[in-house]
User: Fold this.
Amino acid sequence: MNFFAIIGRVVLALFGETGRLALFTWSSVSHIVRPPFFGRLLGQQMMRIGYFSLPVVALTAFFTGGALALQIYYGGNKINSENIVATIVALGITRELGPVLGGLMVAGRVSAAIAAELGTMRVTEQIDALTTLSTNPFKYLVVPRLVAAVITLPLLVLIADIIGIMGGFVVGSASLHFNSGVYVTNTVNFLKATDVTNGLIKAAVFGFIIALMGCFHGFNSKGGAQGVGRATTNAVVTASILILASNYVMTSLLFAK
Amino acid sequence: MADKQQSGGETPKIELRNVTKRFGPKVVLDGLSLTVPRGKSLVVIGGSGTGKSVMLKCVLGILHPDKGDIFVDGENVLKMSAADREQTLRKFGMLFQGSALFDSLSVWQNVAFGLIQGRKMKRAQAKDIAYAKLAKVGLGPEVGVLYPAELSGGMQKRVALARAIASDPEIIFFDEPTTGLDPIMADVINDLIVASVKDLGATALSITHDMASARKIADEIAMIYKGKIIWKGPRAEIDSSGNDFVDQFIHGRADGPIKMEVLKP
Assistant:
């Protein structure tokens, strides 16, 4: 095939997909503010997206906090500044690792589940059936998931922040022999409220990305089992990449002096 | 452009005028025109991939035609506001080819779905209606609490029919209602379709390639080929249509004017 034809096709496909995503996002967001609302579904989704993600997010945060403490200790040791461990762990967890790792873990869990569920509903015509039963599929399927993810992700990340710092504290006081009182003081003194809140803003954006990617790929899946599998993979991959890319942008905007 | 229909006599329940729909380079509906008279049952026959399902989905607004007009009760649905369109959709019920039951909901919740979610009816009242409709399609109350995955294909089809008629629609679409069923169950479904359409006084538009089904449920039959209606007439005239395409289709012959796109060995 002609080399330029291939390039052209790829570029057109990319623009087409971007346009479809923009329209999908617009439809989803505009339906958030228009009644009817499905409160019960929102509660259900908050349980599924938020509550059931707690164990995986908590474990991730705990071990990350611990590993971070060890690495900073080894690094700080070389320049005789071991006592920065508490401060750096707190900053690293709240500003970056809590939101990003929490977001990535939830992306793996939730984007995949949403894409698989909506994808199956698409290929078995259940989404079309909703339309014929006077129920808007955006309101019934997309909005509850989007809103639930935007609300629960910051809560999850707040818990991850606490557990991550605790992971650092446990490693610091148990294996690196820090005085636990000093460790806590160092954490509290250098941590500002904006470190935490900016991290939570990131988390809300990640929540939006996670649910949006799951819904978008699920809604647009076609062609049976293979199509649903592809939708699931694409949802997780695009959600993860968008999380990392948007994290960079937000870090440079939120934390730049 | 025509926002209202201009025609003498009674306005048809549904009219498609020069509807064109393409997917990429593939033209699926090619200027299709079709009218469904009020209170009649029209069956559109045609082979796989001739645009039958796309036609139904255009009327329902699930797909948007590239060109043409679609009228329901004389109103052009393609030029309506979203709110009016949703209002018009309430006139419709649809039986999907694969039943399309919600697998996360029990049978009665499936049947009551349009009443509870779409029309905000009280659950208890909707539940009573759901069980009444299930009884109409020959399913006892013990089926109501089961989940779709626990039912056979024939039972799923009946539940889907009960769901389609639950809100007493003025128009019912049947998408390949007998596909995948054994001949006896297919006939049971055909009888139920005839009975429920008559019962509601509804207008029915069905698509099928099952001639036994078409002969049973149709008042009128139309044949679609390459995105156009090539023949339409009363059911009784289907055997004397004088149309080679129709003859080939209803007798299921491989040889004739319709060429299947298959490679010969």
Observations:
- The CA atoms of residues 126 and 132 of chain A lie 10 Å apart.
- The mean pLDDT of chain A is 92.
- Residues 85-123 of chain A form the longest helix (39 residues).
- Chain A has one domain: 38-254.
